[in-house]
Specification:
The protein is mostly helical and 165 residues long. The chain has a domain of 96 residues. Helix 2 runs antiparallel to helix 4. The protein is rod-shaped, with a radius of gyration of 28 Å.
Length: 165
């Protein structure tokens, strides 16, 4: 039995190898592009932390009028939780590539509807405990500056709960 060999010219070999390498390159770039889009579609985990800090601050501010004897401690809590929200918002903006000139400070004010139940110091304490746990849990999943920021916020919430209230 005789084996017939077909010869492949150098030019044909270069064409086939160029097409193969180009196809692999296109598939590689396409695959990388898909993973970047998936990561961008997830909301930043610090957004929920910032919203929680703003709620805590608004509740503490509302309580200063109801409990004038605790106004000093409640004002400290409100100011610190507002600072936490601002720091979290700044880091979210930094990660998104937004400069400080283009960000707007989103302070939320809560007004209670007539007949709505007024918050209590105990409710604020429970909110701060939840915020502390949530920040600590999220800090364990992150690294670097964000983990440190959340750890600091968690510690501050613990101090606010145990010392100030």
């Amino acid at each position: 039995m005789s084996v017939t060999r077909t010869t492949l010219s150098r030019r044909a070999l270069l064409r086939w190898s160029s097409a193969t390498i180009g196809g692999v390159g296109v598939l590689g770039v396409t695959g990388c592009g898909l993973s970047d889009d998936d990561a961008e579609s997830e909301p930043d985990p610090l957004l929920a932390q910032a919203a929680s800090a703003r709620r805590d601050a608004a509740t503490a501010r509302a309580l200063t009028a109801l409990y004038p004897d605790r106004a000093g401690a409640l004002s400290v809590i409100a100011d610190e939780r507002t600072a936490h929200a601002d720091a979290l918002d700044a880091d979210v903006a930094r990660m998104a590539g937004i400069t400080a000139d283009t960000t707007t400070s989103g302070t939320s004010s809560t007004t209670s509807a007539p007949g709505a139940e007024q918050p209590t110091v105990e409710q604020l304490r429970e909110m701060l405990v939840r915020s502390q746990r949530s920040a600590a849990d999220l800090a364990r999943t992150l690294t670097g500056y964000r983990a440190g920021l959340l750890s600091s916020i968690s510690a501050a919430c613990g101090v606010q709960t145990e010392v100030l209230l």
